[in-house]
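> forwarded from #structure-qc
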């Protein structure tokens, strides 16, 4: 069943005798601001903002006492993102049946993911100077509009003939998710649909963002990536065998300046631990959750929501760089060589 069909079902279809949310639960009253953010990963004000954006579209069709209001549905979804467990949500929130939690999570996830175009965009022409200045302030690397990398999100084996394509090089099943961020850790681009065995450079080469860069839509701005990507005029990578002080200085600056993408993955997975522990759902239902978490991350940054963790804070360790054999042409080296000679030779 698709996400859209799941989201169209109503939790009011659950038989009355099986409903367990007889006692109303008011998280806004029960928790202070810090406890609320620890449990739901965003502030009370952000929850009310989400309700104002799409709450009217998820109102229950009936006015029965036990119907879950939009704010309740948003809280249930956020608690799932914070735990990755339907059972923990059921035990914590509203005491409703698991099938209702399942439907609510998918319904609200679709609504949040549909806000993607409002909150996840590459820097506009007006924004690029500020973004570049933020990156330049890190380690003196010029004209950067984003750092790019991929991170793996654990999933269950999808089964079927194609299941092994989801097994990554670490041996577990995953989706390989590409993101671009700026120096303030805002997510500027996301692709969340590729099996875990697919290489980072393949995802990038197939992306609309790559086509935009090839057309020169962002010239003279560049992205910074690790050695898993081929060096191109618009995607600058480390020099694998630096021979001069200038090349070594370039590498130091490049590595420090692209560090925000590594920090982003840690912050995102700490804020929404379901992305760290894994998502035990149908594979087709997982990309919208990843996108929804990315949207919420950017909303939280814009609203200055701090990440408040519960008693067992996560330690996130990203995978090491996978160096791809070089098949680069001299044309692809021109921009990088020019930067080395202009900015790093002194």
């Amino acid at each position: 069943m698709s996400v859209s069909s799941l989201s169209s079902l109503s939790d009011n279809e659950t038989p009355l005798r099986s409903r367990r949310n007889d006692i109303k639960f008011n998280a806004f009253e029960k928790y202070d601001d810090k406890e609320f953010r620890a449990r739901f990963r965003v502030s009370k004000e952000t929850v009310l903002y989400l309700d104002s954006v799409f709450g009217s579209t998820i109102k229950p069709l009936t006015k029965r006492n036990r119907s879950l209001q939009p704010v309740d549905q948003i809280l249930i979804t956020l608690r799932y993102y914070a735990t990755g467990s339907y059972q923990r949500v059921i035990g914590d929130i509203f005491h409703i049946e698991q099938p209702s939690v399942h439907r609510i999570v998918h319904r609200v996830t679709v609504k949040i993911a549909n806000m993607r175009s409002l909150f996840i965009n590459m820097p506009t022409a007006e924004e690029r100077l500020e973004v570049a200045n933020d990156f330049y302030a890190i380690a003196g690397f010029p004209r950067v509009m984003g750092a790019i990398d991929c991170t793996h999100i654990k999933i269950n084996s999808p089964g079927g003939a194609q299941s092994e394509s989801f097994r990554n090089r670490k041996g577990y099943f995953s989706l390989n998710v590409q993101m671009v961020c700026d120096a303030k850790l805002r997510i500027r681009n996301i692709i969340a649909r590729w099996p875990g065995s697919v290489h980072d450079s393949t995802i990038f080469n197939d992306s609309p963002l790559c086509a935009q860069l090839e057309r020169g839509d962002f010239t003279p701005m560049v992205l910074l990536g690790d050695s898993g990507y081929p060096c191109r005029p618009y995607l600058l990578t480390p020099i694998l065998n630096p021979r001069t002080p200038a090349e070594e200085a370039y590498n130091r600056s490049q590595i420090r300046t692209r560090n925000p993408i590594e920090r982003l993955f840690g912050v995102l997975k700490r804020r929404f631990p379901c992305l760290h522990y894994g998502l035990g759902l149908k594979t087709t239902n997982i990309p919208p959750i990843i996108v929804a978490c990315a949207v919420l991350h950017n909303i939280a940054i814009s609203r200055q929501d701090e990440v408040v963790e519960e008693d067992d804070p996560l330690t996130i360790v990203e995978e090491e760089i996978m160096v791809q054999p070089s098949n680069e042409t001299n044309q692809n080296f021109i921009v990088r060589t020019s930067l080395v000679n202009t900015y790093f030779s002194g």
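QC bot note: Residues 59 and 69 are 6 Å apart (CA to CA). The chain has a mean pLDDT of 88.
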